[in-house]
């Protein structure tokens, strides 16, 4: 059977779900994290929004649990770290201001295991991973999932590329490139 089709994959400051209509409201879509070179690793500096002007959405308000027809979204953290690293529920890693992933798939029948992972493209190391089981009985349906993420880590204080990827049963369906860039006007401090 063919793999499901990934229709969309976005990274945003926040994803809300309207209770009356069920529609997803996606706020602050971005693909660039800005940081100051003299900052500590894993702590992007607050910025002015996403999409090239922000800091990976690490400044928005309180987190919401994952939404969508997938159920169980965000129930684990991958073993992308050193050997012996234990998996943790993704909810335990979330902080106020953590971003959200939103994706939609179609052509899905039965129960499938999806993985959402964040990868350092410099060495293809998985920095975190969340498992999202999805069940669907109609391949014509579009299944939408929003998933709260931990703050997006920077593994080096230099400009670098990352990717948010969606896989189904181990097959890569698509990715969203995330660029880590030095905040305009900031200069590294020597010393």
How is this structure best summarized?
The chain has 191 residues and is mainly beta. Helix content is 0%, strand content 43%.
How would you describe this protein?
- The chain is an all-beta fold.
- It has one domain (5-182).
- The protein contains no helices and ten strands.
- The protein has a five-stranded antiparallel β-sheet with strand order 2-1-5-8-4, with no helix packed on it. A five-stranded mixed β-sheet has the order 3-10-9-6-7, with no helix packed on it.
- The chain is globular and about 55 Å long.
- It starts with a strand and ends in a 9-residue tail after the last strand.
- 35% of the residues are buried.
Tally of strands:
10
**Rounded Rg:** 17 Å
Percent strand equals 35-45%
Structural category is mainly beta
Largest beta-sheet details: 5 strands, antiparallel
Task: Going across the biggest sheet, name each strand in turn.
Answer: 2-1-5-8-4
Count of runs of 4 or more consecutive helical residues: 0
The run of helices and strands is EEEEEEEEEE
Q: Mean pLDDT across all residues, rounded?
A: 76
Shape: globular
Number of domains: 1
Q: How widely separated are the two ends? A: 58 Å
Helix content: under 10%
Query: Which stretches are poorly predicted, pLDDT < 50 over at least 5 residues?
Result: 45-85
């Amino acid at each position: 059977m063919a793999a499901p089709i990934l229709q969309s994959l976005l990274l945003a400051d926040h994803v809300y779900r309207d209770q009356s209509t069920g529609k997803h409201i996606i706020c602050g879509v971005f693909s660039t994290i800005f940081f100051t070179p003299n900052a500590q690793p894993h702590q992007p500096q607050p910025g002015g929004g996403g999409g090239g002007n922000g800091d990976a959405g690490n400044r928005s308000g309180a987190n919401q649990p994952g939404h969508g027809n997938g159920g169980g979204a965000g129930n684990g953290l991958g073993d992308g770290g050193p050997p012996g690293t234990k998996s943790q529920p993704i909810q335990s890693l979330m902080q106020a201001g953590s971003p959200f992933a939103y994706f939609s798939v179609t052509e899905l029948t039965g129960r499938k295991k999806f993985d959402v992972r964040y990868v350092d493209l410099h060495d293809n190391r998985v920095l975190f991973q969340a498992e999202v089981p999805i069940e669907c009985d109609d391949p014509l349906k579009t299944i939408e999932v929003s998933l709260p993420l931990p703050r997006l880590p920077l593994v080096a204080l230099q400009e670098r590329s990352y990717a948010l990827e969606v896989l189904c049963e181990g097959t890569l369906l698509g990715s969203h490139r995330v660029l880590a860039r030095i905040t305009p006007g900031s200069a590294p401090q020597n010393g």
